[in-house]
Request: fold
Amino acid sequence: MRTSGAFFILLAAASGLAACSSQESALVKPAEVVQHPPAVLQKRQPQVSPLRRKVVLLLEKKKYRQALEMMNNRTHEGLEREYLLAVNGLLEVGEDAFALGDYAAAGRSFKGVLDAYPGAPALRERVSRDQKQIRSYLETCVNRLMEEGLEEYRRGRLESAIRKWKGLLAISPGHQEAKKALDTATVQLQSLQNMKDR
Reply:
Protein backbone atom coordinates (compact mmCIF):
# COMPACT_ATOMS: atom_id res chain seq x y z
CA MET A 1 0.00 0.00 0.00
CA ARG A 2 2.90 2.30 0.76
CA THR A 3 4.28 1.63 -2.67
CA SER A 4 1.06 2.57 -4.35
CA GLY A 5 0.82 5.76 -2.21
CA ALA A 6 4.37 6.72 -3.15
CA PHE A 7 3.54 6.06 -6.77
CA PHE A 8 0.59 8.45 -6.63
CA ILE A 9 2.72 11.14 -4.97
CA LEU A 10 5.36 10.78 -7.68
CA LEU A 11 2.68 10.89 -10.35
CA ALA A 12 1.14 14.04 -8.82
CA ALA A 13 4.56 15.70 -8.54
CA ALA A 14 5.37 14.88 -12.18
CA SER A 15 2.06 16.31 -13.39
CA GLY A 16 2.64 19.42 -11.28
CA LEU A 17 6.07 19.88 -12.84
CA ALA A 18 4.64 19.38 -16.29
CA ALA A 19 1.91 21.93 -15.56
CA CYS A 20 4.45 24.45 -14.29
CA SER A 21 6.64 23.88 -17.30
CA SER A 22 3.75 24.42 -19.74
CA GLN A 23 2.65 27.57 -17.84
CA GLU A 24 6.20 28.91 -17.99
CA SER A 25 6.42 28.27 -21.74
CA ALA A 26 2.97 29.85 -22.16
CA LEU A 27 4.24 32.94 -20.38
CA VAL A 28 7.33 33.14 -22.57
CA LYS A 29 5.64 32.62 -25.95
CA PRO A 30 3.46 35.77 -25.99
CA ALA A 31 6.52 37.90 -25.33
CA GLU A 32 8.26 36.24 -28.25
CA VAL A 33 5.23 36.83 -30.48
CA VAL A 34 5.22 40.52 -29.60
CA GLN A 35 8.92 40.84 -30.35
CA HIS A 36 8.77 38.81 -33.57
CA PRO A 37 5.24 38.97 -35.04
CA PRO A 38 4.38 36.55 -37.82
CA ALA A 39 4.77 37.73 -41.41
CA VAL A 40 1.00 38.20 -41.75
CA LEU A 41 1.00 40.84 -39.01
CA GLN A 42 4.02 42.60 -40.51
CA LYS A 43 2.17 43.72 -43.66
CA ARG A 44 2.57 47.48 -43.95
CA GLN A 45 -0.18 49.90 -44.75
CA PRO A 46 0.26 51.52 -48.17
CA GLN A 47 2.20 54.76 -47.95
CA VAL A 48 0.29 57.96 -48.67
CA SER A 49 2.26 60.33 -50.85
CA PRO A 50 3.00 63.80 -49.47
CA LEU A 51 1.16 65.30 -52.46
CA ARG A 52 -2.00 63.29 -51.74
CA ARG A 53 -1.83 64.22 -48.05
CA LYS A 54 -1.67 67.95 -48.92
CA VAL A 55 -4.44 67.65 -51.50
CA VAL A 56 -6.74 65.81 -49.08
CA LEU A 57 -6.22 68.54 -46.48
CA LEU A 58 -7.14 71.20 -49.04
CA LEU A 59 -10.25 69.24 -50.07
CA GLU A 60 -11.32 68.91 -46.43
CA LYS A 61 -11.10 72.72 -46.16
CA LYS A 62 -13.04 73.07 -49.45
CA LYS A 63 -10.10 74.84 -51.09
CA TYR A 64 -10.79 73.22 -54.44
CA ARG A 65 -8.93 75.71 -56.63
CA GLN A 66 -5.73 75.34 -54.59
CA ALA A 67 -6.07 71.54 -54.67
CA LEU A 68 -6.35 71.61 -58.48
CA GLU A 69 -3.35 73.92 -58.75
CA MET A 70 -1.34 71.60 -56.51
CA MET A 71 -2.26 68.51 -58.57
CA ASN A 72 -1.45 70.33 -61.81
CA ASN A 73 -3.34 67.80 -64.01
CA ARG A 74 -1.60 64.83 -62.35
CA THR A 75 -4.58 62.50 -62.64
CA HIS A 76 -2.27 59.75 -63.90
CA GLU A 77 -0.49 59.56 -60.53
CA GLY A 78 -3.33 57.88 -58.70
CA LEU A 79 -5.07 61.13 -57.81
CA GLU A 80 -8.12 60.60 -60.03
CA ARG A 81 -10.56 60.50 -57.12
CA GLU A 82 -9.14 63.66 -55.53
CA TYR A 83 -9.02 65.43 -58.90
CA LEU A 84 -12.69 64.75 -59.54
CA LEU A 85 -13.63 65.84 -56.02
CA ALA A 86 -11.80 69.13 -56.60
CA VAL A 87 -13.35 69.75 -60.05
CA ASN A 88 -16.88 68.92 -58.89
CA GLY A 89 -16.38 70.88 -55.66
CA LEU A 90 -15.23 73.99 -57.55
CA LEU A 91 -18.18 73.62 -59.91
CA GLU A 92 -20.55 73.49 -56.95
CA VAL A 93 -18.94 76.63 -55.46
CA GLY A 94 -19.52 78.36 -58.82
CA GLU A 95 -23.15 77.30 -58.98
CA ASP A 96 -23.75 78.52 -55.41
CA ALA A 97 -22.17 81.92 -56.19
CA PHE A 98 -24.19 82.12 -59.42
CA ALA A 99 -27.42 81.47 -57.50
CA LEU A 100 -26.50 84.29 -55.09
CA GLY A 101 -25.81 86.71 -57.97
CA ASP A 102 -22.05 86.90 -57.27
CA TYR A 103 -21.11 86.63 -60.94
CA ALA A 104 -17.44 87.51 -60.47
CA ALA A 105 -16.90 84.66 -57.97
CA ALA A 106 -19.05 82.29 -60.04
CA GLY A 107 -17.13 83.17 -63.19
CA ARG A 108 -13.76 82.55 -61.51
CA SER A 109 -14.98 79.13 -60.39
CA PHE A 110 -16.36 78.19 -63.82
CA LYS A 111 -13.17 79.35 -65.51
CA GLY A 112 -11.14 77.25 -63.04
CA VAL A 113 -13.27 74.19 -63.82
CA LEU A 114 -12.85 74.68 -67.58
CA ASP A 115 -9.08 75.11 -67.19
CA ALA A 116 -8.89 71.90 -65.14
CA TYR A 117 -11.48 69.89 -67.08
CA PRO A 118 -10.09 66.34 -67.37
CA GLY A 119 -8.97 65.09 -70.75
CA ALA A 120 -9.59 61.38 -70.15
CA PRO A 121 -13.10 60.33 -71.27
CA ALA A 122 -13.53 58.08 -68.21
CA LEU A 123 -12.98 61.08 -65.94
CA ARG A 124 -14.97 63.54 -68.07
CA GLU A 125 -18.15 61.53 -67.65
CA ARG A 126 -17.78 61.79 -63.86
CA VAL A 127 -17.80 65.61 -63.85
CA SER A 128 -21.29 66.79 -62.88
CA ARG A 129 -21.59 69.22 -65.84
CA ASP A 130 -20.24 69.02 -69.37
CA GLN A 131 -18.01 71.72 -70.83
CA LYS A 132 -20.81 73.22 -72.93
CA GLN A 133 -22.97 73.82 -69.83
CA ILE A 134 -20.04 75.36 -67.93
CA ARG A 135 -19.19 77.66 -70.86
CA SER A 136 -22.81 78.77 -70.92
CA TYR A 137 -22.66 79.61 -67.19
CA LEU A 138 -19.39 81.49 -67.75
CA GLU A 139 -20.83 83.48 -70.66
CA THR A 140 -23.84 84.44 -68.54
CA CYS A 141 -21.49 85.64 -65.78
CA VAL A 142 -19.56 87.78 -68.28
CA ASN A 143 -22.76 89.33 -69.69
CA ARG A 144 -24.20 90.04 -66.24
CA LEU A 145 -20.95 91.67 -65.06
CA MET A 146 -20.91 93.88 -68.15
CA GLU A 147 -24.54 94.92 -67.58
CA GLU A 148 -23.99 95.54 -63.86
CA GLY A 149 -20.90 97.63 -64.63
CA LEU A 150 -22.87 99.74 -67.13
CA GLU A 151 -25.69 100.20 -64.63
CA GLU A 152 -23.24 101.35 -61.95
CA TYR A 153 -21.56 103.67 -64.46
CA ARG A 154 -24.91 105.27 -65.41
CA ARG A 155 -25.64 105.91 -61.73
CA GLY A 156 -22.29 107.64 -61.33
CA ARG A 157 -20.81 104.88 -59.18
CA LEU A 158 -17.51 104.74 -61.02
CA GLU A 159 -15.60 102.71 -58.42
CA SER A 160 -18.28 100.03 -58.37
CA ALA A 161 -18.41 99.94 -62.19
CA ILE A 162 -14.63 99.58 -62.31
CA ARG A 163 -14.78 96.64 -59.85
CA LYS A 164 -17.41 94.90 -62.00
CA TRP A 165 -15.36 95.29 -65.18
CA LYS A 166 -12.15 94.19 -63.49
CA GLY A 167 -14.00 91.09 -62.29
CA LEU A 168 -15.19 90.49 -65.84
CA LEU A 169 -11.68 90.86 -67.28
CA ALA A 170 -10.32 88.40 -64.70
CA ILE A 171 -12.48 85.68 -66.24
CA SER A 172 -12.52 86.95 -69.83
CA PRO A 173 -9.29 88.91 -70.45
CA GLY A 174 -10.01 89.47 -74.14
CA HIS A 175 -13.37 91.20 -73.64
CA GLN A 176 -12.83 94.44 -75.64
CA GLU A 177 -16.00 96.24 -74.60
CA ALA A 178 -15.13 95.79 -70.91
CA LYS A 179 -11.56 97.02 -71.54
CA LYS A 180 -12.82 100.22 -73.18
CA ALA A 181 -15.43 100.81 -70.49
CA LEU A 182 -12.82 100.23 -67.76
CA ASP A 183 -10.38 102.65 -69.38
CA THR A 184 -13.07 105.34 -69.73
CA ALA A 185 -14.32 104.95 -66.15
CA THR A 186 -10.75 104.95 -64.78
CA VAL A 187 -9.89 108.20 -66.59
CA GLN A 188 -13.12 109.82 -65.38
CA LEU A 189 -12.53 108.69 -61.80
CA GLN A 190 -8.98 110.04 -61.89
CA SER A 191 -10.25 113.38 -63.24
CA LEU A 192 -12.84 113.61 -60.45
CA GLN A 193 -10.21 112.84 -57.82
CA ASN A 194 -7.87 115.48 -59.28
CA MET A 195 -10.68 118.07 -59.12
CA LYS A 196 -11.32 117.21 -55.45
CA ASP A 197 -7.62 117.54 -54.61
CA ARG A 198 -7.51 121.17 -55.90
The CA atoms of residues 40 and 70 lie 37 Å apart.
